[in-house]
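BUG-372 | component: ligand-complex export | severity: low

The export step for phenylalanine jobs runs without errors, but we want the raw record kept on the ticket for reference. Input record follows.
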Amino acid sequence: MSGPNTDYDPVEVAAVSPAELEAARDAALAAIAAATDLEQLKAVRTDHAGDRSPLALANREIGALPPQARKEAGQRVGQARGAVSKALAARQEVLEAEHEARILVEEAVDVTLPTDHDPVGGRHPLTTGAELIADIFVAMGWEVAEGPVIEAEWLNFDALNLGPDHPARTMQDTFWTEPADHHVVLRTHTSPVQARTMLTRGVSDGAPIYVVCPGRVFRTDEYDATHSPMFHQVEGLAIDEGISMAHLKGTLDHFATQMFGEGITTRFRPSYFPFTEPSAEVDLICFVCRGVGHDDTGQCRTCRGEGWIEWGGCGIVNPRVLQACGVDSERYSGFAFGMGIDRTLMFRHGLEDLRTLFEGDVRFTTAFGSEL
Ligand code: PHE
């Protein structure tokens, strides 16, 4: 326990002077008026009306004054404190109202804006693209056919004049399934659907064949901006009497125009496929530079200065294929073509990376979703 406080002499304690009191009150009122938000006002309250504020100290000292001085000092301190707490309350009210008004503006929700509660996503450009291609041919009276992606080796190769030892088999980097003696592959192209169509439909009743076959194909390729072990092709097959290379060229020109616009035609370059003879690579005229290869700013970036863009393969169906598939090659002839759907869409939409087609990002598909 500490001893009695011998320094304490109430008679000598003087009341806070009226001038000091006024200064403390005015400082408090000025600080209150200067507070611009509730946070600041809270700090002002602590400084000027809190337990340790000059006015609170002045109030505490009243008790220590001689009795005759207490009344007057009490009045003065009371008035000063009253003025401060009134000002605090008034400022508090103003700042609260401002705060509320600001929140109402900042957090306003326009309930009349259109909403999308159930985003429906988009159809994949490969789906809509394959449908668009099919529609172009259906409009010419063709049929659409599909076949399995896991295919008999015989239909993927042998029926198409690619015997077991044919050197061209190595051109198609094949995924084989196990066991090997079942002779089943992941189809390397859509051409087995040609063989299936001829074998199942036949032409013995005189009905010609005009089919397009869009579908997924597989090759042991790297996965990069221009290659993928899984991609899509569309195959076309026409079998009728008197079919020639001219019909093939006309059909592909029409396809190109429908797909890419007026003036986009094709050219043929001699090539080799075991299932067609003669065979050709088909190129599209570059739809950016229109075959010129450059523009005012230099080499055309789309065709890399070539003026043409590789599109696919085509030719007159090899009579050996017709024979293998039960079609009278003396009476009938036909043409066939096959091209990458992915590549076609990349050109059509200016896509730079093939992988965007396969990665299933909904932001990508939604952008194409409205195109039907
Ligand atoms: N199937 C060939 C390929 O994938 C393309 C093709 C189809 C060529 C039809 C000629 C005729 O490379």
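Assignee comment: Attached the raw record above. Residues 28 and 172 are 89 Å apart (CA to CA).
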